[in-house]
Amino acid sequence: MNATTHGDARYYEVTPPGSLAERLLIRARDSIYRNFLTIMRPTPDSAILDFGVSTVMGAGANLLERLYPHPGRITAVGLDDGAAFTGAFPPVRYVRVAANAGLPFADGAFDIAFSNAVLEHVGSPEAQRAVLAELRRVARCVFVSVPNRFFPIEHHTALPLLHFADATFRLACRATGKHKWADPANLILMSRHRLARLCGDAQACRIGHTGLRLGPFSSNLYLAIG
């Protein structure tokens, strides 16, 4: 995982507090949460890992901690010291991890591993596969959600339609001064096809649309394993 505090802040620049964009973000993440509950079926005793929590404590961030009724069963991991996070969610155990390193947990330590809006930021398809492998190592089931590149508005830049192809997205980012998002080290735009290519055992994986539901143009995708 190589997302940074600065990267979190840049993401939430396009969803200022109280804005329509923030309200839509909250609505999308509430939908992701409902899909997580339906598919993973956690119980009050389920041990849950939240991989890659946000350093920004906005109303749309850290959806699992914001909504799950048993926060004491969540272990969250992030890259910073976690002071803001633990202040906002004191029942949740927080563990600081190093970028691009294995998780400090035993095999099968958790019932469920959850991650939202992280996989697209880890730097390369190889790094994405390594993240999924590590989540599968430490948890019996895995639920990952990512922005869908075919949603009409790109999540990180608010650019419309031009992100459907990598070439036009790079040109648009350069033209609007958002060139950092055109670097795959910071963002890989995700589709069903790209998610499927990351899943080595296709029969164990389920991919679907979530978030703001617009069929194939829905705002988010999920990958459920196990």
Structure description:
This protein is an alpha/beta fold and 226 residues long. It has one domain (5-225): Vaccinia Virus protein VP39 (Rossmann fold), CATH 3.40.50.150. 31% of the residues lie in helices and 18% in strands. The chain contains 7 helices and 7 strands, in the order H-H-E-H-E-H-E-E-H-E-H-H-E-E. It has a 7-stranded mixed β-sheet, with helices on both faces. Helix 3 links the parallel strand 1 (48-51) and strand 2 (74-78). The longest helix has 21 residues, at 20-40. The radius of gyration is 16 Å and the shape is globular. The model is unreliable at 2-6 (pLDDT under 50).
Query: How much helicity do the residues have?
Result: 25-40%
* CATH architecture tag: 3-Layer(aba) Sandwich
Spatial strand arrangement across the major sheet:
3-2-1-4-5-7-6
Tell me the total number of β-strands: 7
Mean pLDDT: 91
**Which fold name is given in CATH as the topology?**
Rossmann fold
Structural class: alpha/beta
> Can you tell me the number of structural domains?
1
Which CATH first-tier class would you pick? Alpha Beta
Distance between the termini: 22 Å
Largest sheet: 7 strands, mixed
State the order of secondary-structure elements, H for helix, E for strand.
HHEHEHEEHEHHEE
Shape: globular
In terms of DSSP E residues, the strand content is 15-25%
Low-confidence stretches: 2-6
Task: Say which CATH homologous superfamily is assigned.
Answer: Vaccinia Virus protein VP39
